[in-house]
Amino acid sequence: MGSSGKRKTTMAKLNREQRLRERKVEKQARKDRKPEETDEVTEVEDLSHLDRYVDPYVGPSVAAATQQK
Fold this sequence. Notes:
There is one protein chain. The protein is mainly alpha-helical. It is built from two helices and no strands.
C-alpha cells in the first residue's frame, strides 16, 4: 500500500553519491593540510659578513686601503 508510491533510488545513484561524498572529504582534508605545510619556520641565513664591497678588478689590499682614506 504505502510502498507503491515510494520512488526507489538505484544502487548506481547511491554509489555515485557515496563517491561524491568521499571526494569532498578528501578535498577538504587536503585543504586542511596545506596551511600546516606552509607554516614551517625558515631560518634566515646570516649574511652580515657580506656587507663589505670588494671590487673584483682591484685586489683586496688595494680596496681596503682606498676605503680607509
